[in-house]
Amino acid sequence: MKVGIIGGTGGIGQGMALRLSQNHTVYIGSRKEEKAQAACEMCGYALKVLGLPFDLNPTTNQGVVDNSEIVVFSIPAENLERTIDSLTGLEGKIIVSLMNPMIRTDYFKYNPPEEGSAAIQLQKLLPDSKIVAAFNNIPAGKWQKLSEPLDYSVCVCSDHEDAKEKTMELVNSISELEAVNAGPLAVSPYIEAITPLVINIARFSKKRDVGVYFK
Ligand SMILES: NC(=O)c1ccc[n+]([C@@H]2O[C@H](COP(=O)([O-])OP(=O)(O)OC[C@H]3O[C@@H](n4cnc5c(N)ncnc54)[C@H](OP(=O)(O)O)[C@@H]3O)[C@@H](O)[C@H]2O)c1
Fold first, then answer.
1. ∠ CA 155-208-175, rounded to 5°
2. pLDDT 10s digits, 157-201
3. Is Oxidoreductase one of the keywords (predicted)?
4. What is the 74 CA–ligand 1 centroid distance (Å)?
């Protein structure tokens, strides 16, 4: 598949690129192409050292939209509207949101927009796109540890069955990830809210790479 990551230069974006680019064509997007170039070089070097194959391409965020079948939004949720305003051609695309709006006080707290979740907000802003919430609960650090398997469940929800199926296929193509069908996009607030929960558990229980696996 051709998968592009908007904000692909961040911790989660680069981690995803490291894993996905071994089996898929991946576009790392940025507001600045030279930043995407640097991220691609870094990821490419790490994969080359391990003798792993990869297909990684630097581009702008608009280049991600232009080239990808699946567009992943991997930016801080508060920058969503401004980022969408800067892009064209998102109609009809499968758009995966892994964004988890939250704030930090003495603990991490889910802080959704008035629409209910970042994914629902995205669907309202882009009514002609197929929004899917997925990959919300996997820590960036774990994506980046290529010597370790990614063995988590990935909750996937959407109001577009074809987009959900394609995204589940993508999830199941990565390491030991297991896609679970969580239903319609209305479920996305519960999925996004798992992330502050696991971060709080990691922090207060002094555990690393906390995630979820549903049996
Ligand atoms: N970190 C995790 O472990 C994790 C896990 C699951 C989900 N998530 C979610 O994934 C998303 C990205 O997380 P992250 O930790 O990778 O975040 P991040 O490093 O803070 O940001 C990711 C990228 O977003 C772009 N960005 C930053 N400010 C922006 C702005 N004002 N307008 C447009 N783009 C902007 C930057 O790319 P350019 O400067 O190159 O444009 C940046 O590299 C978040 O919504 C988070 O909730 C994170």
1. 45
2. 999 999 999 999 999 999 999 999 999 999 999 999 999 999 999
3. yes
4. 5
**Per-position DSSP letters for 140-196, written without gaps between them:** HHHHH-TTS----EEEEEES-HHHHHHHHHHHHTSTT-EEEEEESGGGHHHHHHHHH
Atom of ligand 1 nearest to the CA of 77: 45
pLDDT confidence of residue 51: 97
Which token pair is 120?
């629902």
Q: Is 149's C-beta closer than 6 angstroms to any atom of ligand 1?
A: no
List, for the chain, all residue ranges whose pLDDT scores fall below the cut of 50: none
Ligand 1 center–CA 169 separation, angstroms: 24
Residue nearest to atom 31 of ligand 1 (CA): 79
Which domains, from first to last, does the chain contain?
A: 2-205 (3.40.50.720)
Residue bearing tokens 């907000």: 121
